[in-house]
């Protein structure tokens, strides 16, 4: 795997983490406005929230990584 591909995957992961934190904070602000009480996030909540968004955004990138690795293991290029 080339270093450029690794950089792209790393950048995608960092953008994804930033997006999850941004969306979680926005949800927290809206819930505070609606229910008039603060929502305390735990690390477990953020992980579950992140996994839900990862299921929507990341599969295409992971698919190409898995396919290229499988071809390399099988001896094809």
Can you offer a commentary on this structure?
By secondary structure, the protein is mainly α. The protein has one domain. 83% of the residues lie in helices and 0% in strands. The chain is built from 3 helices and no strands. It has helices spanning 3-35, 43-57, 59-74. Helix 1 (3-35) packs across helix 2. The protein is elongated. The model has no long low-confidence stretch (mean pLDDT 71).
Secondary structure layout plus pairing:
Blueprint: H1 3-35, H2 43-57, H3 59-74
Task: List unreliable stretches of 5+ residues.
Answer: none
Give the overall average pLDDT.
71
Radius of gyration: 17 Å
Number of strands: 0
Sheet of most strands: none
Whole-number tally of structural domains: 1
Number of helices: 3
Element string (H = helix, E = strand): HHH
Bin the strand percentage.
Answer: under 5%
Taken from the alpha-carbon principal axes, the silhouette is: elongated
SS-derived structural category: mainly alpha
What distance lies between the first and last C-alpha atoms, to the nearest angstrom?
Answer: 11 Å
Helix content: over 70%
Transmembrane segments: 12-35, 41-62
Keywords: Membrane, Transmembrane, Transmembrane helix
What would a concise description of this structure say?
Keywords: Membrane, Transmembrane, Transmembrane helix. This protein has 77 residues and is an all-alpha fold.
State the main characteristics.
3 helices; 77 residues
